[in-house]
Write the structure tokens for this entry.
Amino acid sequence: MRTRFQNWTLLLGSAALLAFPSASSAQLTTFDIQTRIGAESHVGNITGHAKDAALPYRRFCVGCHGPLGDGNGENAPYMQPPIYQQPRDFQLGIFKCRSTPTGTLPTDQDLFDAITRGFDRSNMPQWNTLTKQERADLVAWVKHFSPRWANEKPGTPITIPPEPEVTAERIKAGRDVFARVQCWKCHGVQGMANGPSASTLQDDLGRPIAAFNFTDGSRPKCGDTDKDIYRIFMTGLDGTPMPSFADNIKPDEAWDLVFYLRTFMAQKSKEKELAKGLGLKPVDPNAPVAQQ
Amino acid sequence: MQVLSRSHLRKAVRSATSLSSLAVVLAFVMLSGSQPANALPAFARKYGLRCSACHESWPMLNYFGQKFKDNGYQLMNDRDAPIWQNPSYWPVVFRITPIWHRVSVGKEQIDTYTTPAGGVPTPTGSAVQRITSSGFDLSGLDFHTGGTLEKNISFYLLPSSDPTGAFHFEQVFVRLDNIAHSSWLNVKLGRFELDNLLSEKRILTLTGNGGIYQTYHFIPQGDGNIFGQIGDNQLGIEYLGHSVDDRTRVSASLISSSDGNVNLSTTANAYTGFFTASQAFDAGKFGVQRIGFYAMAGQASTYYLTSGGGIPIAGSGIGNKGFSREGFVGQFYVGPHVGLTVVTQHGSDNVWFGQGYGNAEITDGNGGTLCTTPTGCPPNNVPGTTLAAGSQAPSWNGVTFEGHYIYSPQLIFIGRYETERMSQQANGNICGGVACPGNLGNISTYTIGFRYNPFMTSRAGLAWHNEYNWLHQDGTGPANLTTGALTNINTGEILMGLDFDF
């Protein structure tokens, strides 16, 4: 006959064995988030399901973004702004890289592209080795952290007109736009992120943030094609001091600005060649705006 | 012999039951009370990623980790260059595993004794019996250091010791990555693991037989060619190219036929080529699937110049003969939890190797000579040597199936089955001048186990490792003492350990 101690140990042992698998699986700890586990994403013809992303999120993402998606993963304290930005707080539902107007939610494709592309100057690598389905599931998972998706629809992607031919005149015109909207205040007159406001920049959460340095070979966070750069001016990078210039720059001017910014970049380009021929000087920050 | 009474037996069983239950409870409390798994923590520390980002279960890579490795331990962002690291960052990791294991060898020939009353034991002959050993033990110690010297110039250095602390350089290389900004152009020079999709250096099992892939090391009975072991790190140069998303991979290596031994001490004047290519494709909810093939073709010496009346001179190998290994590899997933890797191999050695020529054990791998008298040396194909009658080139086929059930990034179950089957025996002198049994040397082995990582961070790794391996080989046990017939041998090992790295 077993003793009481033996019975208890057997009982506890069995309970531990049964409880062990569930205790080690990923668990959401807030009811609010858990209620949105049915979130979906639609990327092309793929439908992503948040519930299928628990394991990949835990495997790939949780170290930075944290179990609750609030950007408080174990590595967050070691990402020191302004050089490296803190992980995104998904609960806020605010995203830099969007095809949609400022203040609106990004599309599922925007989030999918961000996961695929990764972000230079951050700890976020390219996750293009994951299957499209896994990435779509992760998009749904990201969405389920924020109540914004429950209450709002994503914005309508902005229209980007066809890219015109780059010419010397357009580059000169781009310089004028650069001066007029005072890009140099943050990015510096030569695009080296050393403008007079650069050292004071903060994100919406009051954390220091660095302006983009066009000259050091880094890729712009939201993509490095001309179209991507155009999109950045017109949508802004929500949550950062980079506003949307959709109301200040006409589409044609935006293309001019893209061409001018290309002259700063380390990569070889037609724009750089043309600018060399023009002998363009940097804008003069002390000149009146009209004369810059 | 002492026999336990029935009541003693019941008591013992009850105690064992209670203790095992208590152990389960304690293990549960210890494991579940820790944080919600983990590789080279130096890389994890550098990039702020958990080990699980790159590893199915460390040290086995997942696709993201494979891409990271193929990019030269770079994420291809601006954090890759060491200039971005805190100056105090030092990319060093150690790994060692304290273990308990029990090894049981099915047949060993032992001496037998009789002891007359009041007398001293006297040998009476031989017998064959199983020998079982168990105890606490240690693995060897690895010091991994690797990363980038500069953007697109990476390195790896792995001084490694055996359990006694005797060190050697397991892996050392410098790699030029993404030459001309092309992921298709990467070149590595040094001592490195061949581009095996199923990496032996990242094997998930640790026992004596289960800790290697038999398919990567199979050598026919009596064969002297140790140079075709694709699982061993080799000295040479490697080209590797891959698509940006790493779905397409191709590599070619030129290595010394030295099985990685340094100092040009073995077959210094022979080379081997290794080529592999694979393609992965996205299978929707099933995950990423990969199929590929590899081929190895090389030559190694069978004749060593001698001095001192027949003692081989290290590094003087000539009389090269050929060998080859080729096969297919498949990495298949059925969703995020279940994976199966399959590796096949067809191997063949020149007839001279089959008769024991080519053995590099005349050297210690470090410039010294192991055989100091001609009679103690392996056969040497000196001028005028002829092959024994009936000698033929040995060939064989092998396959490895390795399955994983990934319950979570913290817990993985492993099952593996390997079989090696001779298709043509070397005969000649190998079986005393008669034809060898067709199955001589055939191997079947399986391994099961699991690894549980009680915590998962980007700082360190710890795995509670449990494993059982069983291996059967035909015709390599002690000869039957009565009939002299070849016997089969079975070896089993059970191992439990705490595998950790920091």
Observations:
- Chain A touches chain B through 49 residues (CB under 8 Å).
